[in-house]
From TrEMBL:
Its EC number is 2.3.3.13. One of its GO terms (molecular function) is 2-isopropylmalate synthase activity. GO terms for cellular component: mitochondrion. This is 2-isopropylmalate synthase. GO terms for biological process: L-leucine biosynthetic process. InterPro entries: 2-isopropylmalate_synth_dimer, AIPM/Hcit_synth_CS, Aldolase_TIM, IPM_Synthase, LeuA-like_post-cat, LeuA_allosteric_dom_sf, LeuA_N_DRE-TIM, PYR_CT. It catalyses: 3-methyl-2-oxobutanoate + acetyl-CoA + H2O = (2S)-2-isopropylmalate + CoA + H(+). Residues 33-313 form the Pyruvate carboxyltransferase domain. Pathway: Amino-acid biosynthesis; L-leucine biosynthesis; L-leucine from 3-methyl-2-oxobutanoate: step 1/4.
Amino acid sequence: MPMLPDPSIKYKPYTPLNLPDRQWPSKVVKKAPIWLSTDLRDGNQALANPMTIEQKTIFFKTLIKCGFKEIEVAYPAASETDFNFVRGLIEQKQIPDDVWLQVLTPAREDLIKRTVEAVAGTKKAIIHMYNATCPCFRDVVFRNNKEETIALAIKHTKIVRQLTDECTAKYGTQFKYEYSPETFTQTEPEFALAVCEAVKTAWGKAGPGEDERIIFNLPATVEIAPPNHYADQIENFCRNISERENIVVSLHPHNDRGQGCAAAELALMAGADRVEGCLFGNGERTGNVDIVNLALNFYTQGITPNLDFSDIQSVIDVVTSCNDLPIHPRHPYAGELVFTAFSGSHQDAIKKGFEAQRIRHAAAEEKGEIKYWDIPYLPIDPADLGCTYEAVIRVNAQSGKGGIAYLIQQHLGLDLPRKMQIAFYSVIQEIADREAREMMVEDITTAFRTSYKFGGSKYEGRLALKSFKIAAEPAIDSNGNEDEPADERRLFDGSVSVDGTLRVIHGEGNGPLSALLDALRTHLDLDFTVREYSEHSIGEGSSVKAASYVEIVRGGQDVKESRKSSESWWGVGVDADIAASGLRAVLSAVNSAIGDRVLPELRLSVGFNTKSGLADIASIILNSLQLELPRRLQASFFETVQRYARDRAGELSYSDLIELFKDTYRYEVPETPGRIIIKTFKMQESGDKKELSGEFVCDGKSRFLSGTGNGPLSALLSILNPQINGTLSVREYSEHSIGEGSEVKAVSYVELSYDVDGRSKRETAWGVAADTDITASGLKAVLIAARRLNVSLKPVVNGQ
Ligand SMILES: CC(=O)SCCNC(=O)CCNC(=O)[C@H](O)C(C)(C)COP(=O)(O)OP(=O)(O)OC[C@H]1O[C@@H](n2cnc3c(N)ncnc32)[C@H](O)[C@@H]1OP(=O)(O)O
Ligand SMILES: CC(C)C(=O)C(=O)O
């Protein structure tokens, strides 16, 4: 059957109340009402499979935990289950002293008796009696006229009074009485008032004390009108019922028009004191009013709701399992999608909102002001309900850069610059479109790591920084201006893995990044310049790290061109050292830029292009012996290599080169009896100095010698210098480890200079040595350098 073109031939509109002086529209509710949960009665009676005693017990405990002080637990006359459940609660003393047990009964003597019996012995009980008062029910269900309806209510109220008085006398149970004219909203307003006046008189003991007041529960049993009509009806009732102070006006909205919450809120403005409803809106048909929704509406107005949903998920779990009904994903406050934004503009606003709020809160904190929650699209802080921000932003093809950047910030701690957000957004968009699915956080972080070669060896790109040193040297002041100090130039010396092979590279620039780019240009033929750079810190205290972001463009363009260039690549780097984070960011961007481009191979070049030749030879030593030669040693060895190659007409293989290195520096070559050998040694503290003592063999003669210095090397020189003609001193020293775990060794590089009186030229030589003991490696390196300098020993006097 189609819908009617003119529904007025079938449905009557509601009759508005003539209340021209209504006050409620300008009232503001400033405190939460008394709440009654009727989950275990109205909610339960609406279930296909009403709850078992076990389920009701679990639910009851949850309601107590949420803070309900009035709970309608059953319709005890309806079933053994309900009756026994109530008895169980009482007999097992499961009811806190401040909680009222409410039970429902129709206006029938036998059923009232059974109901009072159910609660006998409990501390506090509310007997809730109802009978139908509206014309349709009067005529159709009860076939009673108005007088008979009032008489029924009076008679059974008196029965309730008598039975409860007897129960109080016998068991000490304290009673309140609640009466519901069903369905209030469809009852003539003056008749609803007349019935309630009659019931109040019949009850005979309503007073102004908190526990003396009679409860008139005014149900919108079926929601048949807009919420303003309910508010008018409630205001009219409150204004016209006598002894208002002796009455609790209670609301019992249903949700047939989907306006249960609105009706309750307007009716509270109209003067009601109490609300009956169910968690998440279970109940007959479309349900009772949702108390969680109402309570949290109060909360988000800054009003304490007197109910606690700070672990809303545990409440959802109990309610859904006991009711065996799901909660809609869009259900206010509780649905799994209600704190989630998929769409780009929402995500962007939320991200900006969090940033702005952080700043606002910091300022408010300083001024001792309230830190108000004010985030676009999020009326409540999910954390207040025990939810995480995890699901606030979820990404699909409708999402924008802001949301994606938010997730990167949340999960990787990176605050991407705006232009990089745009660049990464297109990466995600492409995947989301192609795969036509939601992008989970892990999809996004993995795409980020893969795109920017970020996050450890697993994501390493074709170029990866292995070690580096940045040195400063004064720049030549081209202006010749002596008043201002000249800027310093930066020298980059480092090793970079290039497609798995270690390469030693050197470069110079105004700063570390341009020095690295210069090194890439020189050694790998990669020409890029930085167009944008930014950085921020991650974390605090000793664990603080720097995150750097760079945008590079092709080199060889002038500033104007490079500013306009539409082709650019972004990179990111994180490191405890800020220079390292910037260098990593450059390599990350370069990795994107080079794609599959073939890079110049590592070759043995001993020609006159010293910059790359020197580095290539250092790279070969690094790859074969794992030795990271200091810059000056590279230069020194390079000269040796060039001489060697010249003597052999340029013929030099990789293995020749390695042998040449070992031979030159006596590296990993068994010690041959030299002019000075250390056989055994001991280091010990001597005041704030170090004392070295040991057995030395000088020109084949064993000597026990000792000396002190600031460290082992100066202590050794203090031993050697008195034995030789001239003076040895350390010009440069460095060390690093090679190998891993128990195989780890220290390698020391020492450059000694040798001054001999009468010789105009000071001689220098390098020594390289490795040992599992770092002191021994340093001492050995000194002795190798000394032997290479051909120091002449003084003659031995008296065995000394
Ligand atoms: C709006 C609400 O939610 S009201 C609460 C509704 N909840 C329930 O009905 C759940 C529990 N109900 C039950 O278990 C049963 O209906 C019982 C035990 C109360 C009564 O069962 P029965 O005696 O078999 O009667 P039945 O279920 O047919 O109820 C209808 C009878 O009760 C009468 N009745 C209905 N409401 C009331 C009332 N509030 N006061 C007095 N009598 C009433 C009807 O007029 C009808 O009487 P009739 O048999 O003389 O025509
Ligand atoms: C018993 C009454 C209050 C009721 O449940 C209703 O009218 O919906």
